[in-house]
Amino acid sequence: MRLVAISDQPLSVSEVLDSLDDPAAGGLVLFVGRVRDHDQGQGVTGLSYSAHPSALDRLRAVCEQVADDHDVTALAAVHRVGDLDIGDLAVVVATTAGHRGSSFEASRALIDTLKAEVPIWKHQRFSDGSDEWVGSP
Fold this sequence. Notes:
The structure is a single chain. The protein is an alpha+beta fold. It has a single domain (3-134), classed as Molybdopterin biosynthesis MoaE subunit (Aldehyde Oxidoreductase, domain 3, Alpha-Beta Complex). The protein has three helices and nine strands. The strands form two sheets. Strands 3, 4, 6, 8 and 9 form a five-stranded antiparallel sheet that branches. The chain has a four-stranded mixed sheet with strand order 1-5-7-2, with helices on both faces. Strand 8 (120-126) and strand 9 form a beta hairpin. It is an enzyme of class 2 (transferase).
């Protein structure tokens, strides 16, 4: 693991890429999750993310598991918390490996497992004035 963080500051793709610089890595796969202006047919005006106090430890555990399960040379995962606007970066994950196939598989596993297991909750605000919590217990 090169970079694992939960931050209330804007995320940087460059910081993630720089953390994974490795001449042995032939493949680097990057996923960037952004705040979109819609969800399930409703207009979204913004959202906020909240994290449980255990979220960073859980994120580290997810990263360790993905690294153990896949042939990667390194990985990084950062998630934003706080208020975000449309277009803001919400999550950035990346993996490097000797070959592209391993990196694609690991990156997919990393984002999917992060979304399923790390206790970070999204509160969406809709254009009609309603709101919704996503992923909360």
